């Protein structure tokens, strides 16, 4: 943390006593007797099941070529960083994207902001649901301002030689959306929104602490009034005590600006409060996606359950209960040669023969619940027989079915949720 910070130079007599990260110390709103945005109430964000999607991603893929060494540099393989994922982000809502390091989360974020061009799939954006996946840079220019990114590292994502004013104001200048003389007032307005002193626009990033720098990054992302913010681990580099403040700020901003979030994290605890819906990613695939209550209360995928077992459960501790802890051994395998069948099988405590032979499809198994596992079930209640055999036309070992059964039509694997889904107990399709 920098030893110079905005608060210490504040003229308020109590400024030095305030936590360096506390936004109310510098926000003029507080001086005017109003409550700054970040001090408002913070009930957990709620899901609006009827909200139309601002982003609809279908079968999105990103394969990075692996080149041989030497002069010819032939392509000898591909890093399957993102391999056919589908999801939706509701307008003004927030979807959490969670998984260990190397699962393809940042690549997904970079695809959505079109820092990368996808290998395949579609990304339909906005009210008109235009597909931004295949657009050229020229076609993208008017759309770019609608999707902005907040980066993980507040120390490296801001140019140390530029003042905060020019960092936050740069997108306005580039896009020419406001006259030159209106840039500074807009920058100051944004600094105020994120809880920084607007008079400090001419300071440099190194004069701010980590949490304050992340606020600058957030102000920069808001400059063009985006419809969607991709926040790639926005609090991972911050002290735990500061994380909650920055998440609260993002929540306030969401309400104030009606902006949607794709919130990327490697930890399920971080997104719990902010994201009413969470997608869990493993080695380039989404393995489970559901509303908050389902993910945290009755997840069905062994990987989600393993990630959850690392989250301290305050409620269970209070009643003296203990959560069974599942240790994940080893690292995420290489996405150049991912395991056959289910990609999680090399680390899954439940893996059976079928898991190596047949990839489990991402099946909708509830109103807002999808899971990709042959043995889906709550912790300790996983079925002993695979539930997917009838759907896939295979036997319990994953070989083509000898009974002559034709596979039944698997439920639609599109980005959203359908009114009909596969009931894992009866192994039939049921309706809402
Ligand atoms: N530009 C790139 N070229 C080649 N491989 C990449 C590139 N970016 C990411 N990868 C690889 O893709 C996989 C997913 O990376 P990433 O999306 O950064 O994961 P996460 O954000 O979940 O940690 C990793 O194996 C990583 O090494
Ligand atoms: S399909 Fe098999 S290996 Fe994959 S998560 Fe389910 S039980 Fe584990
Ligand atoms: Mg990442």
Strands, helices and their partners?
Blueprint: H1 28-31, E1 53-67, E2 75-90, E3 94-98, H2 105-112, E4 120-125, E5 130-131, H3 137-144, E6 147-150, H4 164-175, H5 183-193, H6 210-222, E7 228-232, H7 240-257, E8 260-265, H8 268-271, E9 277-282, E10 285-291, H9 292-298, H10 302-308, H11 314-318, H12 353-357, E11 363-366, E12 369-371, H13 389-392, E13 420-423, E14 428-431
Parallel strand pairs: 3-8, 3-9, 6-7, 7-8
Antiparallel strand pairs: 1-2, 1-4, 4-5, 9-10, 10-12, 11-12, 13-14
Helix pairs in contact: 4-5, 4-6, 5-6, 6-7
The structure holds adenosine-5'-diphosphate (ADP), iron/sulfur cluster and magnesium ion.
Brief summary:
The protein is an alpha/beta fold and 432 residues long. The protein contains 13 helices and 14 strands.
Describe it for me?
This protein has a domain at 53-67 and 76-282: P-loop containing nucleotide triphosphate hydrolases (Rossmann fold, 3-Layer(aba) Sandwich). Helix content is 25%, strand content 20%. The chain is built from 13 helices and 14 strands. It has helices spanning 28-31, 105-112, 137-144, 164-175, 183-193, 210-222, 240-257, 268-271, 292-298, 302-308, 314-318, 353-357, 389-392; strands at 53-67, 75-90, 94-98, 120-125, 130-131, 147-150, 228-232, 260-265, 277-282, 285-291, 363-366, 369-371, 420-423, 428-431. Helix 4 crosses helix 5 (183-193) and helix 6 (210-222) packs parallel to helix 7 (240-257). It is globular, with a radius of gyration of 23 Å. The chain starts with 27 loop residues before the first helix and ends with a strand. Bound molecules: adenosine-5'-diphosphate, iron/sulfur cluster (SF4) and magnesium ion. The site of adenosine-5'-diphosphate (ADP) has 12 residues, from strand 2 and helix 2.
